[in-house]
Specification:
The mean pLDDT is about 90. This protein has 13 helices and two strands; from the N terminus they run ααβαβαααααααααα. It has two domains: about 90 residues, no CATH class; about 140 residues, no CATH class. The chain is an all-alpha fold and about 280 residues long. The longest helix has about 30 residues.
Length: about 280
Amino acid sequence: MIQALLTGARVNLDVVVRGCGGGAALGAVAQYIRAAESISTVAYVRDRDYRPLARAEESLTDGSPEFIWRRHEFENYLLEPAVVVAAMDELREFAPSLPSDEAEVRERLRSCAEQHAPVEGGRMTLSKIRADADQDAPARIEFPRFRTPDGALFSDEQCVQAVRGECERATKQAATRARHPSLDPDVAEAHYRSTLVRLTERGYLHDDLYLRDFGGRELLSCFWNSLADRRPSRLTMELFQEELASALVSLYENTDDLFRPDDFHDLAKSLRRLAGVTPA
């Protein structure tokens, strides 16, 4: 899919895309491919996850072979409401009850975002603490599951306790070293509460910023579950994702300003600069 997005007429980049998983090994994999296959320019793209948006912007201009999507992960691009409606239009012949209106799709996605906001706030808070604390390496912050034993998402107060508990655990682990101020549970709780306010503000939800920042896989799963009474049993999640991917490629090629900013165009521009070539 990424290959199609980057090599299509809109971006027109001469590139070969390979799936190499994720994680810290991406850089090593890129180096191996470059050496083993004598390829002059090899780059790789990471999910942003909970990294600051500024880090993604920096990756497009710093001359490094590492790039970072502006959105949380690639699934977030599939959830653009226009893409979702286009995918469901292709499925309507045997799933006529699927939503056909972008406004309804957007409201369902916003409802999912509201449900996930407490957990996303917890992960954002711990990610910020991890980044701050790692400067002095007092301890490694881990992400709790943020779910009850039966799989239900934590409430905001349960998230508060999870964040405080993780800070306390990390502090004990780092007892023989300097304690970083961001590990203070009270400081962490205050940061969490202010983050949750921002994530649930009307402007944040209305501007669909959750499609940029929240975990796309979980939003996609929530949206899929919200369609339980509107989809036939023979419509599988796998088929739905395939249609989303196809719709994304088609709409991107034929729609101006589908994404603002346009990550695929900007990635191609940066890749050309890295390789020392100019657009055809």
